Amino acid sequence: MGLMERVYSVLTVSRKESFADSLASLLPEKKFDPVVNLNSGAAARRAMLERDFDLVIIDFPLSDESGVRLAIEAVGNKKSVALIVVSADKYTEIFMKVAEYGVFTLMKPLPQREAERAVEWMCVTRERLRGYERAEKSVSEKMEEIRLVNRAKWILIDVLGMSENDAHRYIEKQAMNRCVTKSEVARGIISTYE
What we know:
GO biological process, one term: phosphorelay signal transduction system
Helix content: 55-70%
Keywords: Phosphoprotein
InterPro entries: ANTAR, CheY-like_superfamily, Sig_transdc_resp-reg_antiterm, Sig_transdc_resp-reg_receiver, WH-like_DNA-bd_sf
Oligomer: single chain
Number of strands: 5
Pfam families: ANTAR (PF03861), Response_reg (PF00072)
GO molecular function, one term: RNA binding
């Protein structure tokens, strides 16, 4: 699924209702759903515990905190992209605090076109994170397969007296003959002999 047909979940956090209203036109329902608008860091943290959000947009400062820590926590799960919108006099200070974590920072007032561009950048960045998630999952699945196959090989060596090479070839041949993965063959060996 590409950028154009993907639907993104959004969390906006601001002490002012007008902030969420100003973003509403940038977040049409067909592309952004759900859009959750909250007014405090505490409420945002509760929402982030219940679900992951693709995009988190924070209007600095919040009613109960600055929002800096919230932005950093939001990107910590590696599934969210965060943007913090700050006044011109605080921009450099806040940027220096959040940039190393990958949090975007924009200056208020936020012109419509700049806000649109920021949301587009956030979506592009979220897609890049999805690519990393897929690669990470692939590597962890491969590592799990290696662990299972090694465990099954040692069972074949210990129980049936096979050499390591013979045990490895046996697992590969069984997987090819039965049209299943080596992991499935290994699981069968493990459940049979343990």
